Amino acid sequence: MQNEKPLKESRLQVQTDLNAVPEVLQWFEQFTSPLLPQQFCGECQLALVEGFTNAVRHAHHHLPSTTPVELELHLFPRYLEMRVWDRGEPFDWQGKLKSLCQEDIDPLEKEGGRGLIFMHHLTDELSYIRLTDNRNCLLMRKRR
After folding, report:
1. What is the model's pLDDT at position 114?
2. CA–CA separation, 126 vs 3, rounded Å?
3. Does residue 51 fall inside a structural domain?
4. What pLDDT band is residue 2 in, cutting at 50, 70 and 90?
5. What is the CA radius of gyration of the chain?
């Protein structure tokens, strides 16, 4: 997967504002429609929006609203890759996901943590890495 060239790619930059969700949804829909099946798109769209809202609510909660959140879509022959870049503090997403999965409470009944569980279940690959430029990249891949 590392050396493959995407069939199509797109980038979007929005401010740290939940009011940007409609713009993110429209951008995603324009990118994927009519190339991909509706159920596949719906699952990927939900994962992407969860990643974006987590960046706004958690990673950027202490940063100015003008702080950009960057999003990327890359369509490959066998999968869709989605990236969400934030400028927040590093986060142990694997530890948080593990603790959420060990709880006896239904995640849908909880106030927080659902987004990480949704992203985990809706994608085939999920990672969150800190880069040397002090940005974080949430990477999600879903096989077609």
Report:
1. 74
2. 19
3. yes
4. low
5. 15
